[in-house]
Design brief:
Order of helices and strands: HHHHH
Strand content: under 5%
Low-confidence stretches: none
Number of strands: 0
Largest sheet: none
Mean pLDDT: 85
Helix content: 55-70%
Length: 94
């Protein structure tokens, strides 16, 4: 099996991709496991100094949710339950 980087590299050089959309289309054609590895590799390549800080609305919502959790107004759920509920609501699971 070809490595993730050689596959993407070959796709880039074979088609002379130059735009973000072309690169994204090629990445989406990878198997799920390879896409996950690509995401990790891209994320690991970004310096924390280059991270875009969350906007004030995101921070306010995160604080609101944290306060609701801390006060007992809401509770958490295991990731598996959250994922199942989200997939059902999105119509992805019967």
């Amino acid at each position: 099996m070809r490595s993730l980087f050689s596959l993407v590299s070959n796709q880039l050089s074979d088609s002379k991709m130059t735009t973000m959309n072309e690169i994204l289309t090629a990445a989406k054609a990878l198997p799920s496991e390879e896409r996950a590895r690509l995401i990790e590799a891209l994320w690991d390549g970004i310096s924390p100094a280059d991270w875009v800080p969350p906007d004030s609305q995101w921070i306010a919502e995160a604080n609101r949710r944290s306060d609701a959790y801390d006060s007992g107004e809401t509770s958490g759920a295991p990731w598996g339950e959250v994922r199942e509920r989200a997939r059902r609501q999105a119509g992805l699971d019967g």
